[in-house]
């Protein structure tokens, strides 16, 4: 069994790691649809988007390892960072780790395509806005990753938005499902736009924008989308999820167990 | 290696690379796709440095392309070859050559239109849905524009699936990015 590693301590490395974890964990969730999506075209679409996210995560985790090493942390590569950390060393916002349906593996599983569609729309809209700004990052490598990823996020956003409208403005059943998906996941978006020490560090060093600065542009686009889908954003809530700080839901452990089992069991295993 | 020899080696390398197929779309070469960004003779005279750019972040062919580039150049006696990946500037389908577009069409893949159609200025709060009827592509088999998109995503990250209502054949579209 491969021993665990700690995440780098350097704040620049952690900022990049947080974005890399976001892409990685969402890719893992989308990958769970492989062979199970409601139609073949969506099976292909969801796994294609997962592949883009994995590619983005690879670049980001590699860069996080480099930034950490430059600041005196142990040198770590993308595979070590992806597969050998324990739950609290992952810094993705909680939204991307939520299961692909209303109940999750611990409550018997059950996927709901509407949940994935709504989350993809929420996350892709946010990531597209974030990538646009990260193209001007003071870190040239992060800027280059962003310049590539923004084009991919644009496709992801369009595709997810198309489905939100299709389900929201579709049958009574599809409208009820997408409304439930919105109600269940909306409150997790608040975390995306809360500035913490890492965000303030990123803003001060020019590494990335303040998280709070994306809130209004995101709301504008989401509200336009929801209106087109005959939906309305739920009321603001005081609830705050804490994945960005490494405090995750009960859904994260099983996800990591599945994602890590191969590298943990066969250290350094390669295809 | 003197300058003239180095220049010859670089010229030969480009010729060799022109024959290295993309592993996922073997009808076109890596130079047709515009993913070879630079070829330089090593200053110490010991082989070549080749700079490649990935097409999509998660393109699973990236490593295969690196390996096949090295193998082809080394087989041509131009080795050793060191490849590096450069993300900046980001690859765009606008870099696919005119010859590459013809090859794609002949292979049954509709080539991409201009990539800037999808670009948004940073900060632009405009939501664009996938158009229900995106501008009709010409069918690469029969040339008809009576075509429709079946799926925004296809067999590889770079392609969408379309069909032609005139000749009734499905075809792939290399998405502009």
UniProtKB/TrEMBL annotation, chain A:
Species this protein is from: Leptothrix discophora
This protein's name: 1,2-phenylacetyl-CoA epoxidase subunit PaaC
SUPFAM superfamilies (UniProt xref): Ferritin-like
GO molecular function: phenylacetyl-CoA 1,2-epoxidase activity
Gene name of this polypeptide: paaC
EC numbers, comma separated: 1.14.13.149
One Pfam family this sequence matches: PaaA_PaaC
Keywords: Oxidoreductase
TrEMBL record, chain B:
Domain MIP18 family-like: 14-75
Domain PaaD zinc beta ribbon residues, every copy: 132-175
SUPFAM superfamilies, per database record: Fe-S cluster assembly (FSCA) domain-like
InterPro entries, alphabetized: Fe-S_Maturation_MIP18, FSCA_dom_sf, MIP18-like, PaaD-like, Zn_ribbon_PaaD
PANTHER family attached to this UniProt entry: 1,2-PHENYLACETYL-COA EPOXIDASE, SUBUNIT D-RELATED, FE-S PROTEIN MATURATION AUXILIARY FACTOR YITW
Descriptive protein name: 1,2-phenylacetyl-CoA epoxidase subunit PaaD
Annotated organism of origin: Leptothrix discophora
Gene responsible for this protein: paaD
């Amino acid at each position: 069994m491969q021993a665990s590693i700690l995440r780098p301590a350097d704040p620049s490395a952690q900022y990049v790691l947080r974005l890399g974890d976001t892409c990685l964990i969402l890719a893992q969730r989308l990958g769970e649809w492989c062979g199970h999506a409601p139609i073949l075209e969506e099976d292909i679409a969801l796994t294609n988007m997962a592949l883009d996210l994995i590619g983005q995560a690879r670049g980001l985790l590699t860069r996080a390892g480099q930034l950490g090493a430059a600041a005196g942390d142990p040198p770590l590569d993308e595979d070590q960072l992806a597969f050998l950390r324990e739950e609290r060393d992952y810094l993705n916002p909680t939204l991307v780790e939520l299961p692909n349906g209303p109940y999750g593996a611990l409550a018997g599983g059950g996927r709901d395509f509407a949940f994935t569609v709504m989350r993809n729309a929420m996350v892709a809209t946010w990531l597209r806005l974030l990538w646009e700004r990260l193209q001007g990052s003071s870190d040239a490598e992060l800027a280059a990753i962003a310049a590539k990823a923004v084009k991919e996020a644009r496709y992801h956003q369009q595709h997810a938005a198309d489905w939100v409208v299709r389900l929201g403005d579709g049958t009574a059943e599809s409208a009820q499902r997408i409304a439930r998906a919105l109600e269940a996941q909306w409150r997790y978006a608040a975390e995306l736009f809360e500035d913490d020490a890492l965000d303030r560090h990123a803003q001060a060093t020019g590494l990335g924008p303040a998280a709070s600065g994306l809130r209004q542009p995101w709301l504008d686009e989401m509200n336009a989308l929801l209106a087109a889908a005959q939906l309305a954003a739920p009321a603001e809530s005081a609830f705050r999820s804490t994945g960005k700080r490494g405090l995750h839901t009960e859904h994260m452990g099983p996800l990591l167990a599945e994602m890590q089992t191969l590298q943990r069991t066969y250290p350094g295993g390669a295809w | 290696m003197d300058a003239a020899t180095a220049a010859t080696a670089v010229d030969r390398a480009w010729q060799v690379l022109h024959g290295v197929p993309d592993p996922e779309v073997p009808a076109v070469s890596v130079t047709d796709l515009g993913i070879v960004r630079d070829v330089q003779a090593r200053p110490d005279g010991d082989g070549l440095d080749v700079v490649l750019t990935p097409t999509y972040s998660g393109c699973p062919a990236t490593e295969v392309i690196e390996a096949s580039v090295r193998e082809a150049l080394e087989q041509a006696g131009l080795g050793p070859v060191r490849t590096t990946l450069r993300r900046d500037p980001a690859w765009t389908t606008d870099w696919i050559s005119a010859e590459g577009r013809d090859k794609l069409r002949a292979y049954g893949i509709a080539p991409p239109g201009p990539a800037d159609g999808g670009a948004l200025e940073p900060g632009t709060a405009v939501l664009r849905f996938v158009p229900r009827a995106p501008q009709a592509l010409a069918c690469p088999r029969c040339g008809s524009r009576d075509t429709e998109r079946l799926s925004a995503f296809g067999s590889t990250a770079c392609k969408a699936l379309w069909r032609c209502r005139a000749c009734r054949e499905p075809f792939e579209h290399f998405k502009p990015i």
